[in-house]
């Protein structure tokens, strides 16, 4: 991959929020906006039943011009919240600029964003950067052991289904280069409510492989320096079981010969 020097690319980060009133990190988001003048935040309230919407609206009023709130009713799940937010961001985003999504719990700290941006600015062939929760020496990736091992089983299954050696499809920090393909990928509701990240990837793969584009030259997995399992997670063991059923649904949503594996 050839490294090039590029100007800082503007970005909109979509932050899906469901019942985040008590753990919304105003201080962290404020510091991020101060440090990143080329980034805007789009909070998507996904039918929260607490005071999340009011907190988001107050925060955005205090940071006018740098963030906005999209209120989605009723609750449609994280995948639909992200998709609606991405579509909203894409209405005004120019091709070549950046959009992405970031989990509201900040398990991936916001200061990691610069690492994502630099990859997309210096490697023009890369279309998306995925955070990857790899436990390496010199990094602080703290995961619940059972969720880690369950995640490895699921990730291996995803790799087989997609025909792509991806290590971590489910990390909640992803940034994309705006393109016609991204707009096409986000245009239709997702089949899966639980593993929409895999479905996003599968849709990209189907388009690329139909055009003989090698996905390995377009996707960059970025090992995170810090990732911390935040208390209050809304992911449960039943969701892990359901994810395998949803993998079958995703694979079946493509016509024969037009799936993510191209056959």
Automatic annotation (TrEMBL):
User: One Pfam family of this protein, by short name?
Assistant: Glycos_transf_2
Please name the GO terms of the biological process aspect recorded for this protein, alphabetically. Answer: protein N-linked glycosylation
Return one GO MF term: transferase activity
Q: Where does the record place a coiled coil? A: none
InterPro entries, per database record: Glyco_trans_2-like (IPR001173), Nucleotide-diphossugar_trans (IPR029044)
Annotated Glycosyltransferase 2-like domain ranges read 13-110
Q: Does the keyword Transferase apply?
A: yes
Q: Which UniProt keywords apply?
A: Transferase
Q: What is this protein identified as? A: Glycosyltransferase involved in cell wall bisynthesis
**Source species:** Terriglobus roseus
């Amino acid at each position: 991959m050839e490294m090039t020097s590029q100007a800082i690319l503007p970005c909109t980060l979509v932050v899906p929020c469901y019942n985040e009133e008590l753990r919304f990190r105003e201080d962290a988001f404020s510091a991020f906006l101060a440090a990143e003048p080329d980034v805007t935040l789009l909070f998507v309230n996904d039918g929260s039943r607490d005071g999340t919407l009011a907190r988001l609206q107050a925060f955005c009023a205090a940071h006018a011009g740098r963030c906005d709130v999209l209120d989605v009713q009723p609750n449609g799940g994280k995948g639909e919240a992200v998709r609606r937010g991405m579509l909203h961001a894409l209405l005004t985003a120019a091709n070549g600029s950046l959009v992405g999504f970031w989990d509201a719990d900040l398990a991936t700290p916001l200061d990691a964003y610069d690492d994502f941006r630099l990859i997309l600015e210096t490697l023009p062939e890369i279309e998306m950067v995925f955070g990857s929760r790899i436990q390496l020496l010199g990094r602080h990736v703290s995961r619940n052991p059972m969720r880690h091992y369950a995640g490895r089983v699921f990730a291996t299954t995803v790799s087989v289904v997609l025909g792509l050696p991806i290590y971590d499809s489910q990390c909640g920090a992803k940034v994309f280069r705006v393109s016609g393909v991204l707009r096409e990928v986000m245009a239709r509701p997702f089949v899966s409510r639980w593993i929409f990240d895999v479905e996003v990837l599968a849709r990209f793969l189907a388009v690329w492989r139909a055009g003989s584009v090698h996905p390995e030259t377009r996707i960059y997995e970025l090992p995170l320096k810090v990732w911390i399992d935040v208390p209050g997670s809304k992911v449960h063991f039943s969701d892990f079981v359901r994810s395998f059923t949803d993998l079958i649904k995703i694979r079946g949503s493509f016509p024969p010969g037009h799936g993510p594996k191209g056959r």
